[in-house]
Every structure is written in structure tokens, then in C-alpha cells.
């Protein structure tokens, strides 16, 4: 299940994030030194949820908690929604190490793609990944998202400006491949 995170998710979300600190921080931007840590500060987590509610209301971003057996297992986020001539966004995601390799993230990304193209009517979705993050790259490979090239020193990740491989999908590609992606990842056949 996927849904926006709420303040009452703090304890469970915090536990997963703290337990996965080493697993996740090597792939994430550094937190500014003066910023409170939402993994340990409930009011910072509440502010994060409130900001994400505002983003959703203004249509600039859509963040979803990824739940497995009703427990938080990660997030799949649709960020930087640009309207006008671009009609695009970026997707980011993370998964609890205990749930990695089970296809939950692939399913979550497939659902977010469906949401982006079918409900938000965006034209393009981009996912950018540090080249050595093979597990994250495997997600886009499973979905058959097209590789577009490398953006040099694209984002600051854990204190270093890192290159990122850019992957993209357009609405035309989605509609061409929708039936297969939905059947494989969103509504797989019962075995």
C-alpha cells in the first residue's frame, strides 16, 4: 500500500530510518547542520509532513510512504513537478534493507509512473541515480526505463557532488508499455 505519510507515522518511520541509517545515507544529500533531524525530532517530522501536504495541494510534489503488511517499508516520491511547456517531474525512492529485493520498490515506482501519466497528465518522468548504486539502477532496468546519459556532478550526495545516470520515460512510452507494466508489476497474475 502507498499513501502520504502523516504525523502519527513518526515512531514507525523513525525506527526504520534510524535502523537503515548506514544503508541509506550513502545515497542521500547531506542534511544542513542547522536543520533538525526528522528521524529523531517529532516536530521536524511533523513539519516535513506539513510541507509535503502543501506540496501536494499546490501540485509541486507527491510523496508516498510505501507500506508492507501495514508497516512502513520505504518511500516513493514524485518531486519537482514542472507544468507549462515541460510537464515533467523526477522520482526518488528508498526501501528498508529488510525489504530490499522483494519487488516492492519496483511496484511502488510503477504505481507512481501510472499516477504521473494517468492522473497528473505529465509528459515526462525522470529518475537520476548514482552510477555505483546498482540496486537502484536495477529498479529502472526492471521497468525498462530508458537510459539517457550521465549528468556530471549532478547532485550533492553525502557530502560529495556525484554524477548521476539519467533515466527517462515519456507519456508516449508509458501508453505504449502500460499494459505490460501494469500486468507485471501492479496487477501481477496469481501463481
What does this structure look like?
The protein has 191 residues and is α+β, with helices and mostly antiparallel strands. It has a single domain (2-186), classed as Aminopeptidase (3-Layer(aba) Sandwich), CATH 3.40.630.30. Helices cover 39% and strands 30% of the residues. It contains six helices and seven strands; from the N terminus they run βαααβββαβαββα. The protein has helices spanning 10-19, 21-25, 42-58, 104-119, 134-143, 171-186; strands spanning 2-3, 62-68, 71-82, 88-95, 124-129, 146-157, 160-170. β2 and β3 (71-82) form a beta hairpin. α4 packs across α5 and α4 (104-119) crosses α6 (171-186). The two termini are 20 Å apart.
Level-2 CATH architecture = 3-Layer(aba) Sandwich
CATH C-level name? Alpha Beta
Describe the strand arrangement of the main beta sheet, using strand numbers: 1-2-3-4-5-7-6
Instruction: Briefly note the structural class of the backbone.
Output: alpha+beta
CATH topology: Aminopeptidase
Helix content: 25-40%
Q: Could you list the spans in which at least 5 consecutive residues all have pLDDT below 50?
A: none
**From the alpha-carbon coordinates, what is the Rg to the nearest angstrom?**
16 Å
Rounded to the nearest angstrom, the distance between the terminal CA atoms is 20 Å
One letter per element, helices H and strands E, the order comes to: EHHHEEEHEHEEH
- How many helices does DSSP assign? 6
